Amino acid sequence: MNRLRPTLRSPHQRGERPAGMTPLRAPGAGRNAENIEKMLGKPEQGKPESGSADRLPHERDQHLEEQRSAPRSDVEQAARDIESGQLDTDLHNTPGVERVMTLPTSEARRAALRTAATSTRVDRRMRIAYVTETWPPELNGVSLTAARTVAFLQARGHDVMVVRPRQRAIDAGKAALADDTLRVPGVPIPLYPDLRMGLPARRRLLRAWAAYRPDLVHVATEGPLGWSAIRAARQLGLPVTSDFRTRFDEYGRHYAWEGAVTLVRAYLRAFHNRTDRTFVPTRELQRQLSELDFARLTVSTRGVDAHQFTPQARSDALRAQWGANADTPVVLTVGRLALEKNLGVAIDAFHAVRKRVPRARLVMVGDGPQRNALRRHCPDAIFGGTQHGEALAAHYASADVFLFPSLTETFGNVVVEAMASGLPVVAFDTAAAGMLVRSQENGWLAPVGDTASFTQAAVALATDAGLRQRLGQAARLTAQGLDWPRVLERFEAALIARWRERDRQLAVALNHVAGNASAMRFYRGVSRLGDGMLWYALMAALPVVGGEAGWECAKQMGLTGLLSLVIYIVLKRGVCRPRPYLSCKEIHLCGRVLDQFSFPSGHTLHAVSFSIVMAAYYPRMALALVPFTLMVAISRIVLGLHYPSDVLAGAGLGMLIGGLSVWLF
């Protein structure tokens, strides 16, 4: 790859700077900073433009005719999705900007270097504390998504500690901290005795995270345990992100008085605004919460296992148990049998269907406090109880129409599962349905709260087998674009970006030290000595002034330096992390560039390893070597050449190599 030659920039090119400073910038430096901020930095708070921008990337290619069209190129897809500020989750031949690195031409290679900062490729494995108050065997969308996310992150090589309430079914006899899980006390949730809520555990978390210091804390639920996790993370200075998964504020309309909505919403706003980033599943929810003064919102949608949920799971035997033959329309609901799910609307719609098709069947999968009331409202309904795995997939695929009347969802995983199973969905125009369903193309939407339109759609589908088949096939195609690995890769990239943001902030703060001309000259001088000048001079002088011991020290320093160089080159070429001044417009280049990549800091690596070897032979030299090594490390950040994490990695490798050298020789 061609070396980027630093050039002097005039004041009008580089903006206002303190007098006496001469910052240097390489060509193309910082050109992608705006796009990076859009994708993973400053979240969008305004309303998107109309048209295709109103939809997420995975929504753009779902029309049947568009499915047959030629796929977009990787570069076009990357550019559009970065500019839209969304996390791409589709599978339409869109591997993302990380693939741009393979383009063959020299111009493409230069462009790839400038865009490498937006790559989703993992440059370093993270330690993540994942806090959730629901976990399998509890069956709900949040618990299943949390388990899938943790499994994915662990499979990607990240060290994940799960923090959750202790569960009797799976935790009997287990220690509080075992199997990468920290178990804390919990209590049953009112009305849902099978679900548990974590109790406050800030002190316990502080002790655990002092011993196991995570790079980032992610909080998936908003209970007392989640609040404790945010407080502990803030106290320890850790980046923390959160998920907004459930509209608990809207639940107040069903379980309490109207004033509870305001109180719960205020709590949720305070909870999420204490975090660095809050993930929401849809653009619609992002807009709604932004209008309610929620801050730092980023869209990260949900996925579906289209291999498990498939029309192939249809079972004639199961339909026979329901009393349905091949011509009998079966209407299905899946979810918790609770007030907030608005299931009375589904039953009313089924009664209207029954008037037109007396042999129709209603199957309600799930359980909850409203089961008996719903049974009284519709004695002919078939209550399938809680289902999961292959049995749940068979229930979906064996039905003909899926009804989803809920108005309190942030997403609604069951909508995507039904679509993947080849069912046309009837729903209100909100949450996942509003994002994915196109009325009378792959399902049927009713205006929010318009129960008459909802019922009309249910009747139309139940009475027209051809329409059901056409919409169901299109729904399946839509769901296949929401593969879980792609969705979770983008979520992983967002977590890494949040972790790196702290790295960037510290790099920016130290780089501003170079605004002082005297400080800049000092750190430039220290960095030049760290290039090798001082170490070469010492290795040459040691045999002269130190005799045999000096000769042995010089030889060992030479061997240590050779090993350090090999490791340094391998990591530089393998990681290819762009230097800070290339990927951050706020960081100015103020020193000489030896190559284009920043990880790890070779100056720091060699300074630390050489200092350890010399201190082993001449302990008094440590009084001078330690401050000098520290100044070399700081200079690399001040001059805009390295992030703090590059320097820490170099220091760690230097200690390892220097320590091994002293121990072995």
How is this structure best described in words?
The protein is an alpha/beta fold and 665 residues long. It contains 26 helices and 18 strands. The strands form four sheets. Strands 5-6-4-3-9-10-11-12 form an eight-stranded mixed beta sheet, with helices on both faces. Strands 15-14-13-16-17-18 form a six-stranded parallel beta sheet, with helices on both faces. Helix 2 crosses helix 4, helix 10 packs antiparallel against helix 11 and helix 22 crosses helix 26. The model is unreliable at 1-123 (pLDDT under 50).
Distance between the termini: 38 Å
Helix percentage? 40-55%
Total number of beta strands: 18
Largest sheet: 8 strands, mixed
Determine the number of helices (DSSP H or I, runs of at least 4 residues).
26
CA radius of gyration:
30 Å
Oligomeric state of this protein? single chain
Strand content: 5-15%
Average per-residue pLDDT, rounded, comes to 79
CATH level-3 fold name of the largest domain: Rossmann fold
Number of domains: 3
CATH superfamily of the largest domain: Glycogen Phosphorylase B
Structural class: alpha/beta
**For this structure, what is the CATH class of the largest domain?**
Alpha Beta
Q: Per CATH, which architecture of the largest domain?
A: 3-Layer(aba) Sandwich
Uncertain stretches: 1-123
